[in-house]
C-alpha cells in the first residue's frame, strides 16, 4: 500500500531538519574531523586516478607517435622506390645518350634524321635474322631505310612497318644484298648474308689483291644504304667459280645477337 500524505510530510520535515542540523554542526566546527577523514581517503584516490589518467594519455600519445612513425616510414619507402625508378630511368637515358654520342663520327648528312629505336624481339620465322624495333609509322619510320648501330656500323634495312613497331632485315639474312667497297684497295663487290654470323663478299674483281683485315664499307650505289657505313673486315679470300672474280669471307663488325638499340637513318 502507498504512503499516506501525512507520512510523506513527516519524511520531508525530517529530511529538511537533518540538513539544517548538518549546516549548524559544520558552522560550529563539529564536522571538521569527519571532513579531514574523508579528505585523507579521497586525496590518494584522486592522485591515483590522476596518475592513471596521465598513463592512459601517455600511452595514447605513444600509440599516435608509433602510427605517425609507421606512416612516415611507409612514405619514405615509397619515395625511395620512386627515386630508384628515377635513377634507373636516368641510367637508361645516359646509356642512350652515350650511344648517340658514338654516332657523332657520322659524316654530316643534313637531309638525314637519326631515329633511336630499341630492339624488342626477333622474328622466329627468319630464325633470328630479322629483329623487331619499338618505332613505327607514327615515328616516321618507312620501308627501305638503313638501320645502323654504334660506330657507324650497318645493321640492315627496314622491310615492314607497323603503327608502333617495324621489322629490320639483318645483313646475315640470305635475302640481304649490299653493294660494298673495300676501303683500302677500293674494289667493288656485293655483300650477301648466308644465314650465319659471317657474310660473303662476292663479285670482287681479280685486278687487285685483296688483303685479310681490310675493311668493307657500303658503296652507296643501291640508294638504300649511304656510302661509308662499316660492314666488317675481310677474314678470308678465295677464288670464285670463274676466272674474273674472287670472293671474301667478311667478319661482321656488329654482334647481331646482342643488339639492344639501333638507329634508323631516315631521309627527310
UniProtKB/TrEMBL annotation:
Residues 119-266 form the Rod shape-determining protein MreC beta-barrel core domain. GO terms for biological process: regulation of cell shape. Keywords: Cell shape, Membrane, Transmembrane, Transmembrane helix. The chain crosses the membrane at residues 9-25. Pfam families: MreC (PF04085). GO terms for cellular component: plasma membrane. Belongs to the MreC family. Involved in formation and maintenance of cell shape. This is Cell shape-determining protein MreC. It comes from Candidatus Azambacteria bacterium RIFCSPHIGHO2_02_46_12.
Amino acid at each position: 500500500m502507498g504512503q499516506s500524505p501525512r507520512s510523506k510530510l513527516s519524511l520531508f520535515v525530517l529530511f529538511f531538519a537533518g540538513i539544517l542540523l548538518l549546516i549548524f554542526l559544520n558552522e560550529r566546527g563539529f564536522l571538521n574531523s569527519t571532513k579531514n577523514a574523508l579528505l585523507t581517503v579521497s586525496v590518494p584516490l584522486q592522485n591515483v586516478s590522476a596518475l592513471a589518467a596521465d598513463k592512459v594519455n601517455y600511452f595514447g600519445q605513444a600509440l599516435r607517435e608509433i602510427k605517425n612513425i609507421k606512416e612516415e616510414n611507409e612514405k619514405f619507402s615509397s619515395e625511395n622506390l620512386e627515386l630508384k625508378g628515377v635513377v634507373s630511368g636516368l641510367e637508361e637515358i645516359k646509356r642512350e645518350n652515350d650511344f648517340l654520342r658514338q654516332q657523332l663520327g657520322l659524316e654530316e648528312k643534313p637531309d638525314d634524321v637519326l631515329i633511336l629505336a630499341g630492339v624488342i624481339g626477333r622474328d622466329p620465322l627468319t630464325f633470328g635474322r630479322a629483329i623487331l624495333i619499338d618505332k613505327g609509322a607514327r615515328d616516321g619510320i618507312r620501308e627501305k631505310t638503313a638501320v645502323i648501330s654504334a660506330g657507324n656500323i650497318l645493321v640492315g634495312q627496314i622491310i615492314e612497318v607497323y603503327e608502333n613497331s617495324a621489322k629490320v632485315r639483318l645483313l646475315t639474312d640470305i635475302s640481304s644484298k649490299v653493294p660494298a667497297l673495300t676501303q683500302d684497295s677500293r674494289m667493288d663487290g656485293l655483300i650477301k648474308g648466308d644465314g650465319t654470323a659471317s657474310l660473303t663478299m662476292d663479285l670482287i674483281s681479280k685486278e687487285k689483291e685483296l688483303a685479310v683485315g681490310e675493311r668493307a664499307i657500303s658503296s652507296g650505289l643501291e640508294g638504300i644504304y649511304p656510302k661509308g657505313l662499316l660492314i666488317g673486315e675481310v677474314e678470308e679470300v678465295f677464288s670464285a667459280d670463274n676466272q674474273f672474280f674472287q670472293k671474301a669471307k667478311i667478319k661482321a663488325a656488329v654482334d647481331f645477337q646482342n643488339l639492344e638499340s639501333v638507329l634508323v637513318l631516315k631521309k627527310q
